[in-house]
């Protein structure tokens, strides 16, 4: 019987996951299909029982369900710490946060050795928390955030140091990570940090992947920084989810090609 996988979120129509996972299933000749499901916040619990009854095998989870979904499944260690999951294996009942893997693999793909680096993470939401979790054992992690109280709370909880936006220019960071929507298509096209900081950095990492060349990425290129790709993060978090779902090695190149071509198509 064909295995059914999917992604739940609200809204869901712009998700690149279906294109990415269906390309991977096709490449492996895996008898499966990956479908987007729009689930309103108040319908999450009903959707979870529906998934179980319908024998859906695996689900990715996006905004606004990443926190609430944990209540229905067994969280892996990183999910317990971060407080958010993006992947559910319905066969085992476990939920995972594969963004952590996506972040580390994307940095690895840019040939950056994170040991001992001074890293600045901009943002204090789910993606920022996953970044601190991924990097705090190897790097010196700092965060900054528009809402200072929230930034300080996240820094305190996760063992990072908080730097207010107005004090950033006194520092020099090796790697600057944008974990806010600044630069995203249809959002504010702004730089998340002052240009002087990018000038001093070794590398920049923009989690925003559409457009592929954000203001942060363009400035990083201009100043000769290494670029960690948000597309790579998306692809690697998807690849890890694919492996959890199917037990097979993900065809990463096929998934990346599908994502890039979809971004070019949707413009
Ligand atoms: N490449 C990937 O695979 C991948 C994976 C996950 C997320 N992402 C991207 O990462 C970004 C953050 O995702 P998330 O899930 O962490 O979101 P989130 O939980 O909603 O957090 C958003 C963060 O961005 C800040 N922010 C929002 N609007 C801002 C603005 N106009 N100026 C300055 N800061 C602003 C918020 O600051 P306040 O606290 O002040 O509100 C908050 O810290 C999104 O753009 C998402 O698409 C990419």
Automatic annotation (TrEMBL):
The keyword Cell cycle does not apply. Shikimate binds at residues 15-17, 62, 86, 99, 209, 237. Its EC number is 1.1.1.25. Residues 7-88 form the Shikimate dehydrogenase substrate binding N-terminal domain. Keywords: Amino-acid biosynthesis, Aromatic amino acid biosynthesis, NADP, Oxidoreductase. It is an enzyme of class 1 (oxidoreductase). It catalyses: shikimate + NADP(+) = 3-dehydroshikimate + NADPH + H(+). The keyword Oxidoreductase applies. GO terms for molecular function: shikimate 3-dehydrogenase (NADP+) activity. Residues 230-259 form the SDH C-terminal domain. Residues 113-180 form the Quinate/shikimate 5-dehydrogenase/glutamyl-tRNA reductase domain. Belongs to the shikimate dehydrogenase family. Homodimer. Involved in the biosynthesis of the chorismate, which leads to the biosynthesis of aromatic amino acids. Catalyzes the reversible NADPH linked reduction of 3-dehydroshikimate (DHSA) to yield shikimate (SA). This is Shikimate dehydrogenase (NADP(+)). It comes from Geoglobus acetivorans. The gene is aroE.
């Amino acid at each position: 019987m064909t295995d059914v996988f999917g992604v739940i979120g609200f809204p869901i129509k712009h998700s690149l996951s279906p294109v990415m996972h269906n390309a991977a299933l096709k490449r492996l000749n895996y008898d499966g299909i990956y479908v987007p499901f729009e689930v309103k916040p108040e319908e999450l619990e009903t959707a979870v029982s529906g998934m179980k009854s319908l024998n859906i095998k695996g689900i990715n989870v996006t905004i606004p369900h990443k926190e609430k979904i944990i209540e229905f499944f067994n969280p892996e260690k990183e999910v317990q710490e971060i407080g958010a999951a993006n992947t559910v294996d319905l066969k085992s009942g476990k939920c995972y946060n594969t963004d952590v893997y996506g972040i580390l693999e994307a940095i690895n793909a840019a040939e950056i050795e994170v040991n001992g680096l001074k890293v600045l993470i901009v943002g204090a939401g789910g993606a920022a928390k996953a970044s601190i979790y991924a990097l705090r054992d190897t790097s010196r992690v700092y965060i900054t955030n528009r809402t200072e109280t929230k930034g300080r709370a996240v820094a305190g909880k996760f063992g990072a140091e908080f730097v207010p936006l107005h004090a950033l220019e006194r520092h020099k960071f090796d790697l600057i990570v944008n974990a806010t929507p600044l630069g995203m298509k249809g959002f504010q096209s702004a730089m998340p940090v002052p240009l002087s900081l990018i000038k001093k950095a070794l590398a920049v990492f923009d989690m925003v992947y559409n457009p592929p060349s954000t203001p942060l990425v363009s400035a990083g290129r201009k100043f000769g920084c290494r670029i960690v790709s948000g597309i790579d993060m998306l692809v690697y978090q998807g690849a890890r989810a694919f492996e959890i779902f199917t037990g097979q090695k993900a065809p990463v190149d096929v998934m990346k090609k599908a994502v890039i071509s979809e971004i070019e198509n949707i413009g």
